[in-house]
Amino acid sequence: MSVVILGSGQLAKMLAEAGNEIGISSTFVVKHGVSADPVGGLGEVHRHDSDDQAQACLDSLPNVTAVTVETENTASSLLSLLSESFPVRPNTACVVACQNREHERQLLDQLNIPTAPHAVAREHSALTSVVEQIGFPLVLKTLSEGYDGKGQWVVESAKEWESLDQSTLTLPLLVEKKIDFIREISLIGVRSPEGEIRFYPPAENIHIGGILIASFAPAANLSNTILQQAETNLTKLMEHLDYQGVMAMECFQTADGLLVNELAPRVHNSGHWTMDSDVTSQFENHMRAITGKPLGITQTQKHTLMLNILGEIPAGLSAAPEPFSLYDYRKSARPGRKVGHLNLQYSDSKSLVSALHTLAKVWPNEFVQTLITQIKD
Ligand code: ATP
Ligand code: MG
Ligand code: MG
């Protein structure tokens, strides 16, 4: 079997590696000028400058079982064109629904899935009234292209709003209530062509400055009510979209239940813990689902911490200190960029704290200390 991955970053790399393990080969189709360092040696890389050229690349391949994406920000025109001749999985509509925050909210509203109170300001003249309608504190978000908190501004108070130079804002913007959540969790599910759905246990996610820095899986002390709410919501979404593959749903847990923050029609950073657990990894399950192979195990008896490495791989981490496993994405260093991650399996909070202290010796940063404060018994 052979899969075409539109993209060449770390998610493409991890998908291809998982595919290799189960006899699925991968070819990468990417725009000219985009680095393919992460996927080096894993399969052919085809370059294109236009949708037609990309289609010509695919037409030249002997057999294509499925085409998939590593990011929702894949041009909808390309996905639509390829769908005419190839099985695009998840289907184009699923990916397009997650490209624009307004469309994503419309989908969630339509399915009665709770989200933070929000409204869209389309032009400057409407901004003040939308801001007043939502109330402070609030978050302004660009409708598309944002990731890792880019394109977002938190406004805590009316005073802060008045001192903001509104002319620096580019409209339209999603104006959203800032939620005083208990914590952030994400649910990752996988759906087969026959409609079988399996869920991984939700992870608890720690963000700093809008960037995911760590996931604890499974999330500690998760009530059955919250778990059911999460699984019901993601089931509704996947069934509505006739989804095929892995999908992630990011949520805020509040005293009144879950609010969905955003959706990812793909494998997700908060699921990287599945590479070092007693489950089938999210990458393998995605490859299984899109090629029609039976789904693998998603329930775990273990505890795993996933720690993102931002900026560059610290020199002291050239080898992962026991008992961590290190994943190096082979990306060039850039401040705040996700260049790798560490996974750690732990048996209890005591051994987790002790492993983090070991890590602090080779990786002196505020994250380790912040994480230690997040550990629950
Ligand atoms: P990602 O890299 O996950 O795609 P993104 O740039 O698309 O991120 P969001 O997921 O919307 O952005 O926001 C990033 C983080 O910012 C959230 O995980 C959360 O920590 C914080 N955040 C976003 N919206 C809100 C909100 N309404 N209230 C409180 N915190 C928020
Ligand atoms: Mg996002
Ligand atoms: Mg997010």
From TrEMBL:
Example of a GO cellular component annotation carried by this entry: cytosol
PROSITE patterns attached here?
ATP_GRASP (PS50975)
Annotated ATP-grasp domain residues: 105-291
Q: Which reaction does it catalyse?
A: 5-amino-1-(5-phospho-beta-D-ribosyl)imidazole + hydrogencarbonate + ATP = 5-carboxyamino-1-(5-phospho-D-ribosyl)imidazole + ADP + phosphate + 2 H(+)
According to its UniProt entry, the protein's GO biological process terms are: 'de novo' IMP biosynthetic process
What EC class does the entry list? ligase
Q: Has the keyword ATP-binding been applied to this entry?
A: yes
Q: Which InterPro entries match?
A: ATP-grasp, ATP-grasp_carboxylate-amine, ATP_grasp_subdomain_1, PreATP-grasp_dom_sf, PurK, PurK_C, PurT/PurK_preATP-grasp, Rudment_hybrid_motif
Q: In which pathway does it act?
A: Purine metabolism; IMP biosynthesis via de novo pathway; 5-amino-1-(5-phospho-D-ribosyl)imidazole-4-carboxylate from 5-amino-1-(5-phospho-D-ribosyl)imidazole (N5-CAIR route): step 1/2
Pfam family name, one: ATP-grasp
Q: Per UniProt, which keywords does this protein have? A: ATP-binding, Ligase, Nucleotide-binding, Purine biosynthesis
Decide whether keyword Zinc is in the record. no
**Could you tell me what this protein does?**
Catalyzes the ATP-dependent conversion of 5-aminoimidazole ribonucleotide (AIR) and HCO(3)(-) to N5-carboxyaminoimidazole ribonucleotide (N5-CAIR).
Family statement: Belongs to the PurK/PurT family.
Q: How does it assemble?
A: Homodimer.
Please give the name of this protein: N5-carboxyaminoimidazole ribonucleotide synthase
